[in-house]
Amino acid sequence: MGRIFLGVNNEFVRHEDKPFEWAVDKAAQLGYEYVEPMVHWGRELLSEAGYFHSVSMLDDPYRVKRACQKARIKLSGLSAHCPLCRPEISTEYLKQAVRFAAECGAPLVNTDEGAKPNFTSAAEDHVLMKYVLTEAARTAEARGIRIGLEPHQQYSKTPEGLDAIYHLVDSPAIGINFDTGNSYLAGQDPYSWLEHVRDRLIHLHAKDIAVEQSDAQRGKVTGTAVGCACGDGVIDWKRVIEICRQAPRDIVFSVECGTIEQAERSIRHLRSLL
What CA–CA distance (Å, rounded) separates 135 from 77? Predict the structure, then answer.
């Protein structure tokens, strides 16, 4: 049976205007065992100026490793979301994220199919995704890194759609990064879906959805950037935990919320159930 550990996605400091190292230190101060940094390609003004938590993959991966070692926190993975339907963007981006993960010490990278081009069919998009995932999987297999596919966009908003993407490439490097909030907002039953992917689960985005957001958006969107504090919304975390404890591997719950205060309440609630 899988053990469950608690981590946080660095989006919890998105409105703090602080750099990556500050986010890592804050996650550790809150008591999280793991952190999930966001990485980006090229250079970006706000993060270079120290006003945003994302890390450029042109930086030394040891920057990430050193920050985590200093804060005594571990990496659950990298948030490396890119549009798999657009190979001109995602092929080299995802391969670089895999190489970056291998060097900084993250066991996996998380992604989704992203927004599709406005001139391609669904069949064409799946061919494009197969190309990208084949290239990325070959890079990941050689380094012992996994790629977590997340329910988040137009094709992965149903269990059947996510399965179709997962089965495009037969590789041990590819698994599922399940998002409780995205699956719920897409109008699905997150618990039956989680049970469906349990044996392929490699990471979990612990995202709760406020009642107000549920009433306004459920069935109308395929996901959301961040949720509310775990325990404040509609997700039954005791049920999620019970399902994940039957998984064949250990799972990190990477909390996805929008403020430090929400991250603090989230860890307190999840700890009470664990």
Answer: 19
- The letter for the amino acid at 193 is W
CA gap 202, 254 in Å, rounded: 11
| Interaxial angle between packed helices 237-244 and 190-197, expressed in degrees from 0 to 180 and rounded to the nearest 10 | 10
Q: Which two tokens stand for residue 151?
A: 């329910």
To the question of pTM greater than 0.90 for the whole model, the response is: yes
Tens digits of residue pLDDT in 38-75: 999 999 999 999 999 999 999 999 999 999 999 999 99
How far is 178 from 156, CA to CA, in rounded Å?
11
Give the chain's residues under pLDDT 50: none
The domain segmentation of the chain, as residue ranges, is 4-273
Calpha distance 7→266 (Å, rounded): 10
- Distance CA(188)–CA(252), nearest Å, equals 22
C-beta neighbour count of 70 within 10 angstroms: 12
CA–CA distance, 78 with 73 (Å, rounded to integer): 14
Separation between Cα atoms, residue 132 and residue 169, nearest integer Å: 10
Tokens 């391609």 correspond to 120
Give the pLDDT of residue 273: 98
Q: Do residues 27 and 11 lie in contact, with contact meaning Cβ atoms separated by under 8 Å?
A: no
In CATH terms, the fold of domain 4-273 is TIM Barrel (3.20.20)
Interstrand relation of 78-83 and 251-255 (parallel, antiparallel or unpaired): unpaired
d(CA 166, CA 216): 30
85 neighbors 114 (Cβ within 8 angstroms): yes
Rounded CA separation 75/64 (Å): 9
Beta partners for 208?
Answer: 228
